[in-house]
Write a structure and sequence with these properties.
By secondary structure, this protein is of the alpha/beta class. The protein has 24 helices and eight strands. Strands 3-2-4-1-5-6-7-8 form an eight-stranded mixed beta sheet, sandwiched between helices. The two termini are 36 Å apart.
């Protein structure tokens, strides 16, 4: 979502980086370009004015003028300003520890994603907070709205209120509240009706539902792709409802991001969650520090660690670690690692979370390095027999032709994959001969991130990232990323991307 804004801001900072000192003229020019970048990203004008005033005042202060690296100080000031604009240092948690059932009211316009977000939130509360959750649809107007929530409830194994025809939204809310109390549910999520546009009937209905249900949280679900319309919608709902937070959907889209940057400042409400995909588990807690880091090209290592820990099958990881310790790495292992990467959001998703690699995306696109390539490699391995996967040396010319025909690729791609596998297997063998230190490196490779060999110190360092400081990687991590990405080209996968399992190091 913030790709265009990231490119503009990165260009601004590149021009001032490396200068021994910054004059007020340099700062003014940089802030003028930052202002244009924010306006082009569809950030509300009053928000932009306040942000530029804050950043300019700080950037022309004594701390910057006398700093050893004034350009870095300016970047830090912009980062701090973005964090403040987005809501401050710490995420705002849901208030779900009230007397059961804690009612969460979901409001918003039709098409904003309320029903799907209700299911995502229910799954998150069930999975991570260990709450017993019930969902109820109060949308009596949209065709099959109640059935949609019931279907989602079955999919995520969360209870839904049985459908009774002919009841009004207020009557359904009362019935849901009584049913949740009698059955001992911790949380009740009420999915209200929406309209294509704001109208008085909608507001009256939602306000009455809020009165009878007395929710502890009233969340406005807004589509972040609608830009400033989403900001106006939030302001209108906030005038009539006691909103406690915002949920922005389609944060994985290609919008300009202005709604996200404006909404917190305009409404004063915290953004609590971001919908980051279509799947029912694609709901992330909003953290201003991490979003600001992404905007400035610093990636989001913490999110990558969390995603890896959620998607990683511990038993399979331990079994593969034992194989690696013996120096064994066959095509089944490579396929498993590629599939693991796909679960974590694919190559593009992972690259977006790694710091310092935003500039490589265009180069990757030019060389056709994308998630389709990962899918083709998985298809190639799937077209082999079990014996061939265990013993790749069996793949002679005739077998390669058969595999190529089965996977719909050219024989050259088979050869390229086998070469990459040989390089990876050689690396595994060399690591296995090095003893405990190298085994830790293999564990780091399995964990999905450089230097993340399960060590508590590494995890503690990552969790502490942000904290009012730029979430930068260590010098060693940054050098590894740049060195390993510098070999892109020829339409081949990058050699040895740190933490991207299944990619051999170039030799």
């Amino acid at each position: 979502m913030f790709e265009a804004l990231n490119e503009r801001l990165t260009g601004v900072f590149d021009r001032i980086t490396g200068r021994g000192a910054l004059s007020e003229k340099d700062v003014a020019e940089a802030m003028r370009e930052v202002r244009v970048a924010l306006l082009e990203a569809d950030v509300a004008l009053p928000v932009v004015k306040d942000f530029i005033a804050f950043a300019t005042e700080r950037a022309t202060g004594e701390d910057v003028i006398r700093s050893v690296k004034p350009a870095d100080q300016v970047v830090k000031i912009v980062y701090d300003g973005l964090v403040e604009m987005l809501g401050g240092e710490e995420p705002t948690p849901l208030n779900i520890n009230a007397t059961p059932p804690a009612v969460i009211l979901m409001a918003g316009l039709q098409g904003s994603g309320k029903t799907t977000t209700s299911a995502k939130l229910a799954l998150r509360l069930t999975k991570f907070d260990r709450k017993k959750v019930m969902m109820a649809s109060l949308d009596t107007r949209r065709p099959a709205a109640m059935e949609q929530l019931a279907t989602l409830g079955k999919q995520i194994e969360v209870a839904t209120l049985p459908i009774v025809e002919g009841q009004s939204a207020v009557e359904i809310a009362k019935r849901a509240l009584q049913s949740a109390k009698l059955q001992g549910f911790d949380v009740l999520i009420l999915d209200t009706a929406g309209r294509i546009t704001l109208d008085e009937a909608l507001m009256n209905e939602v306000a009455e539902v809020a009165r009878v249900s007395n929710p502890v949280e009233t969340l406005l679900v807004a589509d972040s792709l609608t830009g400033q319309d989403a900001v106006r919608t939030a302001a209108a709902f906030h005038e009539r409802l006691p909103l406690t937070g915002l949920v922005l959907t389609r944060a994985d889209g290609d919008g300009r991001g202005g709604a996200m940057l404006s909404m917190r400042a305009v409404t004063g409400l915290p953004i609590k969650y971001l919908g980051s995909g279509e799947k029912v588990d694609a709901l992330d807690v909003f953290d201003a520090r991490r979003v600001a880091g992404r905007i400035l090209g610093q990636g989001d290592i913490v999110a990558l660690v969390e995603k890896a820990s959620q998607e990683l099958d511990q038993s399979k990881a331990e079994a593969m670690a034992r194989k690696l310790a013996k120096g064994q790495f066959d095509l089944n292992d490579l396929s498993a690692q590629l599939q693991q990467m796909a679960k974590m959001g694919g190559l593009q998703g992972i690259m977006g979370m790694l710091p310092g690699v935003a500039k490589m995306k265009a180069q990757m696109a030019d060389n056709n390095i994308n998630d389709k390539m990962i899918a083709r490699q998985i298809a190639i391995i799937s077209s082999m027999t079990k014996t061939e996967r265990r013993k790749p040396d069996l793949l002679n010319a005739s077998r390669k032709k058969r595999v190529a025909a089965g996977s719909g690729v050219e024989v050259q791609e088979i050869n390229r994959l086998l070469k990459q596998h040989r390089q990876m297997a050689d690396m595994v063998k060399s690591l296995s001969r090095g003893g405990g230190k190298n085994l830790q490196k293999m564990a780091a490779m399995m964990g999905g991130l450089p230097g993340m060999g399960g060590g508590g110190a590494d995890m503690a360092r990552l969790k502490a990232m942000g904290g009012g400081k730029m979430p930068e990687p260590s010098a060693d991590e940054m050098k590894a990323i740049q060195d390993r990405l510098s070999g892109l080209g020829g339409g081949q996968l990058p050699g040895g991307l740190p933490g991207l399992p299944g990619f051999p190091s170039k030799k």
